[in-house]
Structures are given as C-alpha cells and as structure tokens.
Amino acid sequence: MSLATWSLIVGFGGALSTTLSFWPQLVKVRKQGAQDLSMAMLAMYLGGATLWLIYGILNRAAAMIAANVVALMLVSAIAVMKIRFDRRVTSPRRLRIGIDMDEVMADALSEHLRRYNAAFGGCLTAEETIGSHLEQCVPADRRAAAEAMYDASFFEGLEVMADCQPVVAELAERHDVFIVTAAMDVPCSFDAKYRWLRRHFPFIPQSHYVFCGDKTIVDADYLIDDRARHLRKFKGQGLLFSAPHNAGETQFRRVSSWREVREVFRSIDESSASTAPGPVRSRDVVPA
User: Fold this and answer.
1) Catalytic residue (one of 36, 86, 102, 219)
2) Does the predicted TM-score (pTM) go above 0.85?
C-alpha cells in the first residue's frame, strides 16, 4: 500500500479512537448523572471540534471531518443530559397536595344550618355545633331529616371558603394539586361536586379529581382535610383544616384559614430550596 493509503488508515483509526472515547462517558452520564462534569470544558470542546470540522472541510480532510462530526454529536448529547440533570437536582420536587372539599374548600356547614333552620324554624348557629357535627346537635327526632338534607342539590351552590381560590391557584402553579373528596359518603353528590369544581376551580385538571371512600388510597405528600379520621392512616403529612366539629382535635397540625395554608407551603418551599441540590420528599421537610 502507498504512503497516502497508510496515512488515511492511520488518520481514520486515530480519529475513530479519539472520538469514540466519549461513548463510555455518555453511557456513564445516562446512568449516574453529570454532576461532576464541567460545563465550561464541554463548551470549549464543542467550540474546538466545530473549528476542526471547518478546518477539515476547507482542506478536504475526510478523517478530520468524520471524527469531528461524531465528536460534536456525542459531546452535544452529553451537554444536553448535563443541563437536564442539573435542572432536576437544583429545582425542588413538585409536591403532591390533596385537598378535601366540604368544610375545606366549600362552606357546607353554613348551607346545612340554613336548610335546617328553614325547615324547622330554628336559629341554630355554627358556635353551637363546636365539638360535634350538626346531626348530633339537633333533637333525636330531627336527625334523620337533617342527614337527608345532603341531597344532590346541596353541593351545587355552596359558597367557596374565604381566600381558597387564590391560594389553591398559587399552589397549583408550583405543585400538583388533587381534589380528594369522600364522595361515597353521599353518592348522589358526584355530579354536583364535579360541576362545582369546574365552575370555581377551572384551573385544576379534571384528571386531578379523586372521588373516593377511603382516602388512604391517595398517594400524596400532604392532605388538607377537616376530618381527623382521614388523616390517621394517611401516609403523608396531614393538615387539619379548622372547623367547629374538630375543635377538640389535637393530634394533627392545624391550619385555621387558607391564608395560613399559604404561609405553611411558602415555608415548605423555602425549606426545600435551601436543601437543594437533590430531590426533596415533603415529609422530610416539615416546619416545626
């Protein structure tokens, strides 16, 4: 073979060996991340490879052209993966927050009192139900009628709790918010609750509605609920939303308003940001 042929073989061999040396690095980055790689080094190498590619084109050096085309592809892939990895480890993980409806988002007690007082000519107030549910505060012969007031129309026109809409909207921008309601307690409420959510909280995806019976099936970091029984077996962090009937409950951290909910999650977000890099599980970052 001629010297020119040998020169071409040696050139391609050297170029192939040098270029493919990035392949093991690419595989390692895919498996282990790229935290230890320098972005400045990758940028300088890409710049140099681009110049060598131009040089090869100008001089019709096939080996140089092929080597630098492959090098640019491999190093570019490594750089893209590093950028994605760095974003993942420096950004706090989106929390999964479950929110109950009745007495948390929707003022069910006021509607129940209104219907009861209208039906029986009474003047029962929310203060008189402290520590008990309304059904427990009325004469025994009226309890069945009071419970029957939870019909399909009951949930359609409930008032939204103060500050609930803006705070839930803020949470939904930063985290994954799910509406978790024990609709099986009142099976006829499904349609009304669905329409109520679409009317007042259109920014929550319908796929994030969870109509259930037992809330222990919910895999979330936080659950905001007014009933302690739903929080006792919940695997994440329970927040008890204050209502007259749960006034004596002391087992769970309490939030008395949606403004307080806002402050709780702002504190959690700040704590999560201060512990970056690395994904954060909310139940490991619970303010005292």
Assistant:
1) 102
2) no
